Request: fold
Amino acid sequence: MTLERDFPDKLPYELRRSADQRIPFVFNSPHSGQVYPPAFLQQSQLDAQTIRRSEDCFVDQLFAASVMLGAPMLVAHFPRAYLDVNREPYELDAKMFSDSLPSFANANSARVAGGLGTVPRLVGEGQEIYAQKLPVEEALGRITTIYKPYHALLAGMLVETRSRFGYGVLVDCHSMPTGIRFPESGLRPDFIIGDRFGTSCSPELTHTAIHLLREMGYAVAHNKPYAGGYITEHYGRPLKRFHALQIEVNRGLYLNEHNYERKSGFGQLQRDISQFLADLVSLPDFHFLDVPLAAE
Reply:
């Protein structure tokens, strides 16, 4: 099995939580994984540095205060280049495989066209991952043994949270390349808050997140160019009292993207995010229980 071959000594993901969940929030870091299975590296034509271009380095550490605040946090150890759980289950690129895709695969999505499906074809600025085509069973094995259990755990935590508190809030944590710029001004956003254009969460959650970060002096964009991926879209159902917000942090604030080492500003950013989270999770319940929406 794919799981036993690629992760014989360590689970591919980890649920971090305190003894008791004290707040109706669940945090998720799906792209911060740094465990590259040897079999995967043998399939790749990229060197050990280049293959990390899609990795959200240290994002789980930046948001570590979430656990201390009393929220569970799901953290991927598998890398995004190996498997992307922020996609539909079967967004697969037919060009990657030596045999035919199953009929239920979505081979025509925009993300597949961009080389960034569930099993990605590319990393970074368009570097091809694989030296040769893969058997379809390779992709299906990763999806069956890792992707589906990951989402089952995430969904179960949200259902448990709503059952206990009356609603559940998912915060999906990511990083973005240093080169991202505001389209109008060309300036670099420090954070991008994504709520699927007002459909995935309470408007007050979005407004508060943006306000808190701007009050700290950060440049914050809303939905552009990242409005939230599959996870935000799939789990954000405010009318059912499930709210989902995506937060993107600019890697230029904390990471040397050439050697993947933390910059001197990492500690201050981590402290700022910790304070930001403490304030964000203090929003009153009524903002999540009776939600006016632009659309759903």
The longest strand covers residues 168-176.
